[in-house]
Specification:
Purple Acid Phosphatase, chain A, domain 2; Cyclophilin_TM1367; hydrolase activity; Cyclophilin; 6-stranded mixed β-sheet; 9-stranded antiparallel β-sheet; 20 strands; mainly beta
């Protein structure tokens, strides 16, 4: 599915009209989403009735205070949960029932945040959530960025993001993201996790399913795996719930608390590891796993 993103038109209907034309005629989108400022500008979409449109109000719009109009919408498209919002953070004008984007991201309840508001085009991954800001559609803007829009090409395991400058159709940003969901099982436990986009994680993903006998080392579980890789951005300390790859093993490691070499509350591997992902569910549940118990990593879908 192809989705076009526009926002922050601020009354410049001709720019919105041209962006809509390019999205429909050049990029053949299935849907256009206006991410706020201004609501009234969306009358332009009536000129392309064959293309589905979604409208999100800006945080200062009258519609933002209307409980009958959703300020944030979560849609599941090709298995990806996408939050459409004007602001990527909670706002003082939010209504009580409005979901908190940061909370949704922290709980891994969304995969993508599509937003506007800042007028700064950007595509980045934060804590396994893809953040897409298309920029703005003003002819001139004090922040200096040219008018632009975004295109999302969504497939079950892959999203391609492109930010396009309106005036010359030049691609400003183009990136591809994959979603690698895993399940970690041991005894009666079943935990969800996500692998990242490191080369090591790609190798492990290609080797799944993998299983091994749990070795306990403090609040770390590790077991050998048939994947050889060099250390990649090695970490001497990790975060709660991180999944690591330890080249000397080679082994995969799950961290759910301090290890015998930790200082204070830090989580320190025996030697540097490549962080390849993170557990979504509570990693402390791994305390139930016993020595030599079988642990299996499989693709979750």
């Amino acid at each position: 599915m192809r989705i076009g993103l526009v926002s922050d038109t601020h009354g410049e209907l001709e720019n919105l009209r041209e962006a809509t034309r390019q999205l429909v005629e050049v990029h053949n989108v299935d849907k256009i989403v206006h991410l706020g400022d201004e609501w009234e500008d969306c009358q332009v979409f009536q000129e392309v009735p064959e293309t589905e449109a979604m409208i999100i109000p800006g945080v200062y719009a009258v519609q933002y205070r209307d409980p009958s109009i959703p300020n944030r919408i979560i849609s599941t498209i090709e298995g990806w949960k996408i939050l459409f919002t004007h602001s990527p953070e909670p706002h003082s004008n939010d209504l009580p029932e409005d979901p908190d984007p940061k909370e949704l991201a922290a709980k891994q309840e969304i995969d993508i945040v599509a937003y506007g508001h800042t007028h700064i085009p950007a595509v980045e991954e934060k804590d396994y959530v893809l953040m897409v800001n298309l920029g703005h559609l003003k002819t001139e803007d004090k922040k200096g960025h040219p008018p632009s829009y975004a295109l999302l090409e969504i497939r079950p395991r892959e999203v391609k993001v492109k930010i396009v400058e309106l005036t010359n159709q030049k691609t400003l940003v183009e990136r591809t993201f994959t979603k690698k969901k895993i399940t970690v099982t041991a005894s009666d436990l079943k935990l969800r996790g996500l692998l990242n986009d490191t080369e090591t994680a790609e190798k492990i993903w290609d080797a799944l399913p993998i299983e091994g006998q749990a070795n306990l080392w403090g609040e770390e579980i590790y077991f050998q795996i048939p994947v050889d890789a060099e250390l990649e951005d090695g970490r001497e300390t990790v975060e709660l719930g991180d999944i690591g790859y330890w080249p000397p093993g080679p082994a995969v490691c799950f961290f759910f608390g301090p290890t015998p070499v930790s200082k204070g509350d830090e989580i320190r591997p025996y030697s540097p590891v490549t962080v390849i992902g993170k557990l979504v569910d509570d990693p402390k549940l791994l305390r139930k796993v016993k020595e030599k118990e079988t642990v299996k990593i499989t693709i979750y879908w």
